[in-house]
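Researcher: I'm preparing a figure for a lab meeting and need a structural model of a single chain. I don't have an experimental structure, so a prediction will have to do for now. The sequence is pasted below. Please return the structure as tokens so I can convert it later.
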Amino acid sequence: MKLCSMTVLALAAGLLTVGPAMAQQQPAAAPPDLNAIPDKMPFNIPYGTAISYDRAQALVKAATDEATKRSWAMNVAVVDPNGDLVAFGRMDGAQLASVTISQHKARVAARYRRPTRAFEDAVQKFGFNYILTLDDVIASRGGIPLVEGGKLIGAIGCSGGTGSQDEATCQAAASTINK
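Model: Understood. Here is the structure written out token by token.
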């Protein structure tokens, strides 16, 4: 019992020593100046004609093909510029809680006209917790706007894996439109 306690104390001391050293190795990103007034509106993508059902289905297929290739079980949602669902796919074995999360990510990417990663970065990298008070925000990557001809036609959201897996799955499908 005494040996176990000593081992735990030694591990804890090691973590306390390594933690600050690792933090010093990674320079913190400078937060944006919230008082700066940009000349142009950020993320000011004009709205276009909503993505069609057939194209939305093709995006679901492209995303699920990418997920299958990587052995990931995903939920994939495609929405119109207002964030309303156009097409959805749930792969066998995909996490059930992620059904609504994928739709939420797509809706936020469409309504705010930016990838949901922008919200994740604002909270995680810069500590802008006020972002979480905005209506309908989700601060988790995996939602990507669909822009064709410079106009927003919808968004895609993926969920079921880690944020990076969700984002990679969405990006594989979105890249067929976002060029």
